[in-house]
Design brief:
The complex is a heterodimer of chains A (413) and B (385). Chain A is an alpha+beta fold and 413 residues long. Helices cover 22% and strands 19% of the residues of chain A. Chain B is mostly helical and 385 residues long. Chain B folds into two domains: 97 residues; 242 residues, M75 peptidase, HXXE motif (A middle domain of Talin 1, Up-down Bundle), CATH 1.20.1420.20. In chain B, helix 7 packs antiparallel against helix 8, helix 7 packs antiparallel against helix 14 and helix 13 runs antiparallel to helix 14. Chain B is globular, with a radius of gyration of 23 Å. Classes of the chains: A alpha+beta (413), B mainly alpha (385). Chains A and B meet through loops of A and helix 15 and helix 16 of B.
């Protein structure tokens, strides 16, 4: 086992117990470094042979960019937002939480867990449902919302001068029916894995750790499966994410932020989020040809109108009026889509399905791409007849976390 | 500042008096308050200030001056918060007793219409406790005996609650048997408070808890359903006490049975701490959802009582927590305060809180959040084992 790979802020020699204790002193005596606090160590793998080797796939946690953005999309995703507890006015307590979360995330993405106390009267530190399931390509991606910096016109923690340049509250968009209780939030966490239970386990343990400093505001669950290496389909039956850029140079242009952002935000990105309820029954009764007209692509191949292959560029002049793809391309901007489908039982009033898309996109300039695109689509997208935007969010995703550092460290220090 | 000058003056007098008083010796209990003015000990100093404020409170009580009563009730709380950590560290036993009388005074002081008689009672008791604290010796219970002491203290608390349960169930039962719906409604919540505070004890006696406290969905045969909630339904849903006499009699019998059994009840320290967690779980599952008191909607009364009951365990465990877990004790203490503060928003009197159905989703979530924070911290009290 590569020891370097196992580095977590608390274990490594350079940054460690002493640093953590310093942090904890900084944060004041009462700081909740958590049940799995300073002394917690990593538990080593149990029975290796018993685990499906496929699920041992790991995505490195410490990297230039945060994992879970351009990472090959896993089959299951959770998106959750947290609000800082009203009792917290001291930035040191938030730093302490981010240290704890970083340590926990670095542990979990290796398919490991925190060990329990030898005192069996205490609650267990780890909830145990992911034991022996492996890492399953788990990624944990952290972000900050506008309300983390500014709330009710106030600079909450003295960090407003470090606000990412493109981070704003989400503007009003035509044709949205937002539920604020499942929108926005101070902090967001996206957790994805090839096994749903592994992803849930990670989120659950992050929630448990954070309580009292940051409390869960909302949580959404999604799934998306496609043939290996091919674009997956959403619940409308169309390919979703065809236009995504895969070349690292292109990703630098579309996804990752650079020198126009505050230092701590460079090499990061922005997560744009819309929960889009699909009016599934109406869609299912629409004709095949109209469905293609509405989207602007062929349903089976994913090719744009006037093309035969999925990845051939869109010809705007060949697009049916107000088609989804046509309108999106008119903005001339690109985004990196990473959506998940969701289902949530039926709507009791109608008996119709409650299902749709957790639209998640990553881009370095949301004010020039994501938001203008929403504006255009909100006004005239032919698809609006079949969808309703019910939740929203925009979060700054800082650069990747280096070994021995913690999430958003350079925002604070 | 005027008050500063006064302090300096008092201190000077105190220093001058010091040899005289020491000569008098400490046998005279009445002089103890004077003695302690001479000390630099922050606990004694703080306690003297508490006494002064408590005297002012009593003067206000005599004049029946509600504004002054509220003012001093709040000032006593501020004063207590300013030095209570020192008391908790060094005099944990006295600490719990002072909290017991001080907290209700503060709670009443925040109400539009405070219960003056109750404040009077607590203020008198507080005087006694403050005097005890002034003369208390800093004795450390041996760690081996600490847990036994904690259980004894807690059981004493639980016994008192069950005695009060019996005392307050009697008039309630009487009103039910007399068919007086309005009176019975008024008398319903008080015994509920005492029951909910001591519920872990009742739960130890197999059938007693369900017989006294089962909700309609806890039973498979509604015709065999008994206890508070059966009468609650009659009162609020049916608005009639017809046929309720037998349930009232059964309730009285069961409550008396509980009292009898609890007198000889033995509790292990681990079970005591587990009981505190049970109370918080109860609060977080059936009270915060409005399920417990689904007809009377007095869930917040029960919720507060559950939290009070768990606080009694925490207070009993303070001497043990002081051994290496002072920081945790401090956090728990702050969180009980934060919780109580949250609940004060909805409190009208000890027996009356805002109707559960009048709370907004956000308000319920706010209470739930404070409760979760409390539970998370309280779960860590098991560190004493």
């Amino acid at each position: 086992m590569d020891h370097e790979e196992l580095g977590t802020p608390q274990q490594k020699k350079g940054y460690s117990r002493r640093e953590m204790l310093k942090m904890s002193a900084l944060a004041g005596g009462g700081i909740a470094l958590g049940a799995s606090g300073l002394g917690a160590a990593l538990e080593l793998f149990g029975d290796k042979a018993a685990t499906d080797p496929a699920n041992e796939s790991k995505i490195p946690f410490f990297a230039t960019h945060q994992a879970g953005v351009t990472t090959a999309q896993q089959g299951y995703g959770y998106l959750a937002a947290f609000d800082i507890d009203p009792s917290i006015h001291d930035v040191a307590k938030i730093m302490a939480l981010f240290i704890t979360w970083t340590r926990l995330a670095a542990t979990l993405i290796q398919g490991k867990r925190e060990i329990n106390s030898s005192n069996k009267e205490l609650p267990p530190n780890d909830t145990n449902e992911a034991r022996d399931l492996g890492a399953a390509n788990l990624t944990i991606t952290f972000g900050l919302g506008h309300s983390f910096f500014m709330k009710n016109g106030k600079d909450r923690f003295g960090l407003a001068s470090q606000m990412p340049k493109q981070l704003t509250p989400m503007p009003r968009i035509a044709h949205e029916t937002l539920d604020q209780s499942i929108s926005n939030g101070d902090i967001c966490v996206q957790i994805c894995a090839d096994i749903q239970q592994v992803a849930f386990h990670a989120l659950r343990n992050l929630i448990k750790e954070a309580l009292g400093t940051a409390n869960i505001r909302w949580m959404e669950t999604g799934f998306l499966n496609g043939p290996k290496g091919k674009t997956p389909r959403n619940l409308f039956g169309f390919k979703d994410g065809t236009a995504n850029v895969t070349d690292p140079d292109d990703q630098n242009k579309v996804v990752w932020t650079s020198s126009d952002e505050p230092k701590w935000m460079r090499g990061g990105t922005y997560l744009g989020y819309r929960k889009i309820k699909m009016i599934i029954e109406t869609w299912d009764r629409d004709s095949y040809s109209d469905q293609e007209q509405v989207i602007g692509r062929k349903k089976n191949s994913g090719a744009a109108f006037g093309r035969t292959h999925e990845h051939e560029p869109v010809i705007i002049s060949k697009q049916p009026g107000d088609s989804h793809v046509g309108l999106a391309h008119q903005t001339g901007q690109k985004i990196y889509r990473r959506a998940y489908s969701y289902t949530n039982g039926i709507q009791p009033a109608t008996g119709n399905l409650d299902a749709g898309l957790l639209f998640i996109s990553y881009q370095n300039k949301p004010q020039e791409s994501f938001i203008p695109m929403l504006r255009v689509l909100g006004k005239s997208d032919a698809l609006n007849e079949y969808i309703d935007h019910v939740a929203t969010g925009l979060f700054a995703i800082p650069a990747g976390i280096k070994k021995n550092e913690y999430f958003a460290q350079h925002l604070f220090e | 500042m005027k008050s500063q000058k006064k302090m300096v003056f008092l201190l000077l007098i105190a220093i001058l008096l010091l040899p005289v008083i020491t000569a008098c010796g400490s046998t005279q209990k009445s002089s103890s308050s004077k003695t302690s003015q001479a000390t630099n000990d922050p606990v004694k100093q703080g306690t003297n200030k508490m006494k002064q404020l408590n005297n002012k409170l009593q003067a206000a009580l005599k004049k029946n001056d509600t504004d002054a009563i509220k003012k001093y009730g709040k000032q006593i709380n501020t004063q207590w918060l300013s030095y209570e950590n020192g008391v908790r560290d060094r005099f944990p036993l006295q600490y719990a007793k002072i909290e017991r009388y001080q907290q209700p005074i503060y709670a009443q002081s925040n109400l539009a219409d405070p219960d003056v008689a109750q404040i009077k009672e607590n203020s008198t008791a507080l005087t006694g406790q403050l005097n005890d604290l002034l003369t208390a010796k800093e004795t450390k219970t041996k760690p081996s005996k600490q847990m036994d002491q904690a259980v004894d203290d807690y059981l004493k608390y639980a016994d008192e609650q069950i005695d009060m349960l019996v005392k307050t169930t009697k008039p309630f039962v009487k009103a039910v048997k007399a068919g007086d719906v309005e009176k019975a409604k008024k008398l319903y919540t008080l015994p509920r408070i005492y029951y909910e505070r001591a519920e872990p004890i009742a739960e130890s006696f197999g059938d007693l808890d369900p017989a006294i406290d089962a909700r309609i969905n806890d039973v498979d045969n509604v015709s065999k359903w008994t206890g508070f909630h059966e009468i609650e339904r009659a009162l609020w849903e049916k608005n009639s006490l017809k046929g309720q006499s037998k349930y009232a009699d059964k309730l009285m019998t069961d409550v008396l049975d509980l009292q009898k059994k609890s007198k000889t009840f033995k509790l292990t320290p681990k079970a005591m701490v587990a009981g505190a967690m049970e109370l918080l779980e109860e609060a977080a599952t059936s009270k915060i959802t409005g399920e417990e008191e689904r007809y009377s909607h007095t869930d917040l009364v029960d919720l507060q009582a559950n939290v009070d009951g768990s606080e009694a365990v925490y207070q009993a465990a303070i001497p043990a927590l002081n051994e290496g877990h002072k920081d945790l004790a401090n956090q728990i203490d702050k969180q009980f305060q934060a919780f109580d503060k949250q609940m004060l928003k909805y409190k009208k009197s000890d027996t009356e809180y805002e109707d559960y159905t009048k709370l907004s989703k956000d308000q319920i979530r706010e209470i739930s959040n404070e409760l979760s924070k409390l539970s998370k911290l309280m779960a860590q009290t098991a560190k004493i084992f």
